[in-house]
Design brief:
Length: 56
């Protein structure tokens, strides 16, 4: 809950901060980076769950 709330507040703020100096392309970069981090976290959780299942 905290992670999604933090992302929901910080990502729009970050896009707003980057929009003026970098332009509209900053939206694509910020969303792509956020997606990459989310997929990395999902992979890490799945990998950890697989390790626990294999060790039992």
């Amino acid at each position: 809950i905290v992670g999604s709330s933090l992302g929901g507040m910080s990502l729009p703020w970050l896009i707003g901060q980057l929009f003026e100096p970098a332009g509209p392309q900053s939206l694509l970069v910020a969303v792509s980076a956020s997606l990459a981090l989310a997929l990395g976290a999902l992979w890490a959780f799945a990998w950890q769950a697989g390790r626990r299942t294999a060790s039992r």
